[in-house]
Design brief:
By secondary structure, the protein is mostly helical. The protein contains eight helices and two strands. It has two domains: about 1-45; about 50-150, Alpha Horseshoe (Serine Threonine Protein Phosphatase 5, Tetratricopeptide repeat). It is about 70% helix and about 5% strand. It has a two-stranded antiparallel ribbon. A hairpin with a 2-residue loop joins strand 1 and strand 2. Helix 2 (about 55-70) packs parallel to helix 5 and helix 5 runs antiparallel to helix 6 (about 110-125). The radius of gyration is 27 Å and the shape is elongated.
Length: about 170
């Protein structure tokens, strides 16, 4: 009789132990997945300067989905061939151009990427990328260079103001 009681407690406690370990096994990946999703939301969320209305969000959704699916050529084509994106509000236009620039950088079209960032900064000189976007190795450095060139009074080269005029150098005299 005492042997059966021991077996009962052993198997009951083991099943509880196994349940507890199983919940721990699923808890860690669940917490990690939630962290990844929250990071993704902050990466692709809107900042104050690019707040979109619900109808504009509907227009951007296919572009964002193509980008997230890795269809970068499709993003470039969609933004280029959708006239309502360029005639819409500045936040809509800059958001669409941002995805186009990201796609161009990822497809190694660095000149086109830089040109698109120039378009964005012409439309909105205060435009900035989110911190997670700025740190991206493909488009982050390109954007920072173009942004630095668009700052008024910023010297872009030795003796060359951002406007592109050349400062003459006085010849050395004895």
């Amino acid at each position: 009789m005492s042997n059966s009681i021991i077996k009962y407690f052993y198997y009951t406690n083991m099943s509880q132990f196994k349940k507890m370990n199983a919940s721990r096994v699923f808890l860690l990946p669940g917490v990690l997945a939630a962290g990844v999703l929250m990071s993704a939301c902050s990466l692709w969320g809107s900042s104050d300067s690019t707040a979109l209305s619900s109808s504009e969000e509907v227009q951007i959704r296919p572009i964002r989905e193509s980008f997230m699916a890795g269809q970068y050529d499709a993003v470039i084509t969609q933004v280029t061939n959708t006239p309502t994106l360029s005639t819409g509000s500045v936040p809509l236009h800059t958001t669409a151009l941002k995805y186009k620039a990201f796609s161009e950088c990822l497809t190694e079209a660095k000149r086109s990427c830089a040109s698109t960032f120039e378009q964005i900064l012409t439309l909105n000189p205060n435009f900035t990328l989110l911190p997670a976007e700025k740190s991206h190795p493909s488009w982050g450095p390109v954007f920072e260079r173009i942004q630095a060139e668009h700052q008024p009074g910023k010297i872009t080269g030795p003796g060359t103001p951002a406007g592109g005029s050349i400062t003459p150098i006085r010849p050395l005299t004895k």
